[in-house]
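Quality-control log, excerpt.
Job 1 of 2 completed; input and output follow.
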Amino acid sequence: MNRTGNFWRNFDFILLGTTLILILFGILMIRSATIGAVDTDIISRVPDQIRYAIIGLVLVFVLAAVDYRLLGSLHLWLYIIMVALLILVQFLGVVGDAGSQRWINLGIRIQPSEIGKIIIIITLGHHLTQNYQKLSSLRAVIMSLVHMSIPTALIFIQPNLGTTIVFMVIWFAMIWAAGLRLKHIALFVGIILIAAPVMWTQMKPYQKSRITTFLSPESDPEAFYNILQARISIGSGGFGGKGYANGTQSQLRFLRVRHTDFIFSVIAEEFGFVGGAVVMVLISVVILRILRGARRAVDPLGSLICYGVAAIIFFQTVVSIGMNLNMLPVTGLTLPFISSGGTSLLSILAGIGLAESVIIRGRKI
């Protein structure tokens, strides 16, 4: 009874409540973006999102109830499972848009790279905790990069550049939180400078087009079309928006992939500056509550897990909104909690569950 009482007393209901509001709002926006669709895949987006949301919320409570330190002790098995799933994608993966092979069909389609985001937080967190006192050594930093390199390389060749970058951001955020020395930042910059040309030669034509279109829109008017429509959507929404399901760009189908990559444009058109700002504030609340959990964690593993989860949500939010505003290249990253995408939603909610596990077992301040 006492343990159950502590669970509910320490549970962060503000974090959970804000998450619920974002999920419900996301379902409403997916409905608005898919009204009148005739494609069966598009029609199923709303019920699928509801189904995954329910599963994800159950996962939040399950992971919150499990001591994150137990998961840390299973780091080796979790790492093996992650790598095995990513290898399986290369042989049994379902081919999606533009020839990308990112999913496995196990009755339901899952995206192992999304699952990998959460697993790598646990395994890298354990790795950095074990080497907490050695981060002044270059060898320790390189070993953490080796830890990340295998799953990151497997994700890159799917190809999935967006999630590859997310993995790199997770590594940097967590090793920085663990105590990365300033002298090693030069190593990180050097790796980027060396890897960038190599990655460019291995990128698919559509991935290169996204970058070149961002740098020089007139070079590919067809590729720039949807970015232009997104800007029109956001601009036409004004301060208060046109009202729910009344956006002309989305309802008249001028805006493509409006239920996933460009859902923020739908929000801005229908709810204006106010709607977009509220979404950003709510996501900021989620991030701040997770960072609060990091500060209150009783051990480095707990802190690093929270920093990793916060980094994913922050980075994906910035990139998703940035590409809608044409401030960043299109990457295909979802807007956390809101964009359509079952495995993506599950991975984010699994991160919330991990953060709650740390918060429940945190110290009192």
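Job 2 of 2 completed; input and output follow.
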Amino acid sequence: MGGKRRRAIVPRLDPRCVCGEALKPFWPFCPECARPQVWRDLYQETGAECAYCGWMVSDYSWYCPWCGEDIHEEGVSSDRPLKAPAGFRFSAKCDAGCGGGVQYPMPYCPWCGAEQTWGDEMFEGTCPHCERGVDDWMDHCPWCGGDATGQDLIPRALRRVRRLLVVSRIRHWGFRVLLRPGVSGVDPKYPKVVEIDQSYIVGQRRREEIPWSILVGLICHELGHSFLYHHWRWTDSDAFLEAFGEVDKAYRVTDVNWVDFQRRRITTTHPNHVTAYASQHPQEDFAETFRFYVTRRGRMRELLAEMGQKRKGVVVYRKFLELDRFVRTIRA
């Protein structure tokens, strides 16, 4: 029989990694298992694949937009930069100004080979390793394959915090610690996501310079916010209101207030609060009380004796006793 045989076109399916995780087109790595991905021309959209990296490319291109290698073919590649060859979409013009179009997230221009930069505003955060966009649920960065949470940069501090929670007899409530740029904090809408300012870690010249003791105190403080938001019904009880007050009142605490998270001893100032920062707002009051409770391993006798030496008010006793009672309740 004469004529050319046409290759059957496979119907397009949602791209998935071999582990089963759903992927966005052209992610180099799986965010679940960190497996490297190869985006081949399975659906005959361009009819060509790069001989160097195996990813789908256009015959009109001069360079592979994924690995940057020269794939120019005389008489096939376009004589001028195109906006969007068949199989690809136009997302932006080349950063180098060659006049050609590129599709998100091509790292190289297919017409001049220049490196491209992309904004990842659609993501919830940035990877602490490559600073590309990642979401809070991702275990691995889809761009570099590294730990998207940044927990691999603070294993010592996290081990210490987990051990303190176990010794304090506080059950894990499913929180997730993430290193992110900006101010540390917890969003009440997502109480289990604890964001830690990555400037404490990223950019340090030597591992010995990382302030581990401060980092442990900071994580425990933010876990106090997460714990409170996770058990928000407790804030309506009479015992909680007598100890901490109304935690849902307007929050006007500024981020310029300095806090010594390395401190493990109760301050002598502010007789009705454990620290000066705790007096800023009832939520910060609880977070600081929680931090001291955890870092002191829930040793109530030791804490109560120290509060007597520091001449703290009765309300401070109430705070620790109510927290200890609630911890025992949820544990039982």
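Post-run check on job 2. The beta strands are 92-93, 101-102, 125-126, 133-134, 176-180, 185-186, 193-197.
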